[in-house]
Design a protein that fits this description.
- The strands form three sheets. The protein has a six-stranded parallel β-sheet with strand order 6-11-10-9-8-7.
- It has eleven helices and twelve strands.
- The radius of gyration is 23 Å and the shape is elongated.
- About 45% of the residues lie in helices and about 20% in strands.
- It folds into two domains: about 120 residues, Aldehyde Oxidoreductase, domain 3; about 150 residues, Aldolase class I (TIM Barrel).
- Strand 9, helix 9 and strand 10 form a beta-alpha-beta unit.
- The chain is an alpha/beta fold and about 290 residues long.
């Protein structure tokens, strides 16, 4: 798949080291040490089980085996962003058996989680493909894994919302309440940030939207609005700023929301509710 971002290799290595340290503990993989000779070699494949999916996280799996033993050879049989069917072979690993077996669970944990997110995102993206709407993730991610989970969203055909509190301004209902209203919040934000920082504001009503349109913003988040309200909001905005729909939007009602004419649809479910995709590591005998 083209136009995917590149995972920061430093973040990958830090995350994999932490996961391996958690799994190996103080004494290492005592099962493999007890049952597998130190000189033993093995070949294995990572394969999909009973469901199709979208691949994400191959470089993380590769780094898992690389850190355990540089003698392990990892061969990708597909690429991130690719769709695969049940039983598809995704990678092959060959080398020292103890290290291969010690890395199995960490590699599969990362891959299964990220493939699950990419697969769920692909279903969302396909549902709105006939419209101009783009699917976005949120900050509702697993602590410590945000960069990877947002990468998986991209693999599935979605787009990323902000990565943290420091890369864009998103004025939510609580900010508006404390700031004293829509207009004071927007004016304060405009006076604070530089010219490269986007400002988005959340509104719950069409009256709030009128205030935003009068004051100006880059993006308006239309929160928990009905389909009729979304259609009216899009007409009011009339292309003057990006319109984002959000709030409890799931696959079942996604098509109708996209057809209201919004530019973006954000869903926390992409990362907080995506089921892990069932993958396995199988030793090749002979």
């Amino acid at each position: 798949m083209t136009n995917l971002p590149v995972l920061n290799p430093l973040l990958v290595e830090d995350a994999v080291r932490a996961a391996l340290a958690e799994d190996l503990g103080r004494a290492g993989d005592i099962t493999s040490q007890a049952t597998i000779p130190a000189s033993a070699k093995a070949r294995a494949v990572i394969a999909a089980r009973k469901k199709p999916g979208v691949l994400a996280g191959l470089d993380i799996a590769r780094k898992t085996f690389e850190l355990l033993d540089p003698a392990l050879r990892f061969e990708a049989l597909s690429e991130d962003g690719a769709h695969f069917g049940p039983g598809a072979l995704l990678a092959r690993i060959e080398g020292p058996a103890r290290a291969l077996l010690s890395g199995e669970r960490v590699a599969l944990n990362f891959l299964g989680r990220l493939c699950g997110i990419a697969t769920m995102t692909s279903h969302y993206a396909e549902a709105v493909a006939h419209t101009k709407a783009k699917i976005c993730c949120t900050r509702k991610t697993t602590p410590g894994l945000r960069a990877f989970e947002k990468y998986a969203v991209r693999c599935g055909g979605g787009m990323n919302h902000r990565f943290g509190l420091d890369d864009a301004i998103l004025i939510k209902d609580n900010h508006i309440s404390v700031a004293g209203g829509v207009v004071p919040a927007l004016r304060a934000a405009k006076g604070f940030v530089g010219h490269l920082v986007k400002i988005e504001i959340e509104v719950d009503t069409l009256d709030q939207l009128r205030e935003v349109l009068a004051e100006g913003a880059d993006v308006v988040l239309l929160d928990n609005m009905s389909l009729d309200q979304l259609r009216e909001a899009v007409a009011m905005i009339s292309g003057r700023m990006k319109a984002e729909a959000s709030g409890g939007i799931h696959l079942g009602g996604l098509r109708e929301v996209a057809e209201t004419g919004v530019d973006l649809i954000s869903s926390g479910a992409l990362t907080h509710s995506a089921p892990v995709l069932d993958l396995g590591l199988d030793i090749e005998i002979g």
